[in-house]
Amino acid sequence: MTSVAGQAQVSAELLAWVAGVTQQNRTALSVTLVAGDASPRRYFRVRTHADSEAASSLIAVISPPTEKNKAFLAIRDLLQATGIRVPNLVSADLDAGFLLLEDFGDALLLDALEQDGAPQWYPQALQILRQQCSIDLQDTDLPPYDEVLLVQEMDLFPKWFVGDLLGLGEKEIEQSHLHDLWACLVKNAVTQPQVVVHRDFHSRNLMCLDDGALGVIDFQDAVIGPITYDLVSLLKDCYIVWPRDTQLGWLRQAFDNLPDDAVADDVAFTDFVKWFDLMGLQRHIKVLGIFSRLCLRDEKPQYLHDLPTVLAYVVDALNLYRDHEPRLAAFAEWFEDVVMPRAALQPWFRAP
C-alpha cells in the first residue's frame, strides 16, 4: 500500500503517474510532503524501493497550469547547458501539471551560512552568477526585465505593505514621491548591462549537495535583466544579513571576475556599487509588497518574520543615497516620517 506522510492529500493521478514513470509497483512507493515555497506548487519526496536495489529518492511536483511550467523546463535546460547544477529532469506531464526531478536533498545554503559556511559556499555562488553572465542572450527567449515589470513589482509596495498591512490611507501615501523614486530605480536598472537573471537567487533557493557542489532551484521566473540583480538577491539576502564591509568584499570579487565583455571598461567599482545598492532598493521595496501579500492574500504569515530585515535594507539604502539622489530624498523623508512610525507599531517589528 502506498504511504503518504504528513497532512498532504496526494492525488491518485500523481501516484499512478509516478509509479508508471519509475516503473515501480505502487505498493512500493512512499511519498512525503516537502516544505514548499511562496508559490502554489507542492513538492513531495518520492522514495522507490526494489528488492534488488537500494532505495532511491526523487522530487515530485504538483504545479498548476497557472505556474510557469514550460518556462521552468526551458530555463532548466539553459542553465544545465552552461554547467550550472540544476535538478535533472526525470519526466514531465505539463497537461497534468506533474514534474519528476532529481532530489537535491534538504541542505539549504541558508543553514550552512548560519553555521559559518560562507567561505566555502559563496565563491561557488559567485561563480554560478559569472556563468549566467556568460550566457549568450541570442540563445534565450527569456522576457526582458523592463520598465513595465519593474514598476508592476514596486507598485505592490503601496498597495499591500503601506495600505493593506500598515493601514495607511490614500491621503497618507505620497504618490509623487513614489513616482520620482520609481523613475530613478527604473533608470538604474535598465541602463545596466543586461544578462540572464535568476530573479530569486538567495540562500533558500541554493542547495548544498552531497558532492560539495551548489545546486540551483526555483528559476522559472528568470528574465534578461540588470547585471547586479542576482548579486543583490545573494549579498542582500532577505533571510541573512552581512556587515557592509563583508558584503562589499564579495561584491568586489564578483566585479573583478566578471566576463571581459560584461561591463564597459569605463565602469568603475564605485559605479557598480551604486548600481547594486539602487537595484537592492528596488528589490526590497518590491519584497515588502510581496511578503505582505503572501500573508494577507495567501495566508502565509511566516513571511512577516522577515519584514524587519527587508525594512532595514530599505532604510540603509535610503540613508546612503538620500543626499546624492534628489528623486530619492523626498521619498526617504516620507518613509522615515510616515511609514516607519506605523511599521514600529506592528507586532512583527524589530528596530533596524
Strand elements, count? 10
Number of helices: 12
**Which architecture of the largest domain does the CATH hierarchy give at level 2?**
Alpha-Beta Complex
For this structure, the CATH topology of the largest domain is: Aminoglycoside 3'-phosphotransferase, Chain: A, domain 2
Largest sheet: 6 strands, mixed
The CATH class of the largest domain, by name, is Alpha Beta
Strand content: 5-15%
Question: H/E element string?
Answer: EHEEEHEEHHHHHEEEEHHHHH
Q: What is the typical, i.e. mean, pLDDT?
A: 90
- Assigned CATH superfamily of the largest domain: Aminoglycoside phosphotransferase (APH), C-terminal lobe
The domain tally reads 2
In the sheet with the most strands, the strands line up as 1-2-3-4-6-5
Inertia-based shape: globular
By secondary-structure content and strand pairing, the structural class works out as alpha+beta
Helix content: 40-55%
Distance between the termini: 52 Å
Low-pLDDT stretches: 1-8
Instruction: Give me the Rg, rounded.
Output: 22 Å
